[in-house]
Structure prediction request, 365 residues.
Amino acid sequence: MIQIKDQKVNEVTQWIHEAMLRKVKRGSQVKEDIVMENRLFSILCHDFDLGPTKCAIAMNEKYGYTLTGDAIIEIFRTRRMANPFERKELLQWAEEVAKYFSSAIIGEKEGFEQYEKKRREPALKNGKRHDSQERMAAIMIYENYPEIDQFDDKNSLYLLGNTLAKYFFYDISDAISEVYGFPQHKEKEAKKKQQNNKTEKKMSYEQALRRVDQLENILERTNTMLQDLQEEFEEQLEASKAKELADFFARLNSEKYGCILDELLVVRKGIDELRKKNYELPIEINGLLIMVKKLIQFVRDSHIEPIMKINSTREVIASDVEFCNYEGSPFATLGDRKMVKVVSPGWIYKDKELQISRPKVKEEE
Prediction:
């Protein structure tokens, strides 16, 4: 536990709070999706192995959501965290960063050096940086050491997306540096003071130069942050377009509108079978057939694809139908096998691996 009453530690938390105020002020409209993601991250910080369904249960109990396991999977996919092994690597990296932070904030130089080294490393073992790793580390720090949150900054942290959270994470490091004098430029300056024995007037000039240097660094970081925010905005816009497209096809395949996507497959299959039998279709319905053909082409061009083959049968166990709408008798054991028929194939937006509707299977007698 961090001794928050220590003067230096208290000074660091004050610096961090001021940095948070700047980030929240700079942020645009708060998106509920960002808040939901950060709340999910906070839950994962306490159990790295939580699966989608258990995450949904924890979110619903703690925050009053009505999420399903599928909704959590969609969040994981959006944040490139669908792989459970990589997700755990990310959380383990964030935990190590938080551990070194606890040493750095109390003024341990070795702890600060380890913290600086670790926070600059890629979170994933394959050597790749994750776009949410700094965001996750910042949340992990507040989850593991809640005593530092004297100004209710954790709730504000939940409002920040990847870019603003990343630069707030950098601000945490800067705050420790400023309070304890850890940055190299300060150490070099101290050596110059001892070697040159400068006058007070000369020192004032050097202080002015140092201030200019600090302002230049702040300006450079701000410009970089603005560029990152623009890139993040463009990514969010792209994701929003993909979600709108998926929502459109989800409505199209809802029971309210007669599961149009499913019916297109049934009609196409029926027409193909009639043609194989050399059946001559009445000329009056040719216009209808052309419309069906064009609709199928539109679905394909939009990269909307079925997940399963409609009307196919397969042998399954309980885990095989975990993410399907299953109709039939309950599975007696995990290894219990049943024959099921695919009533609805389920649909997916292939470009973004975004599920539109779940497959529906029915137990065969």
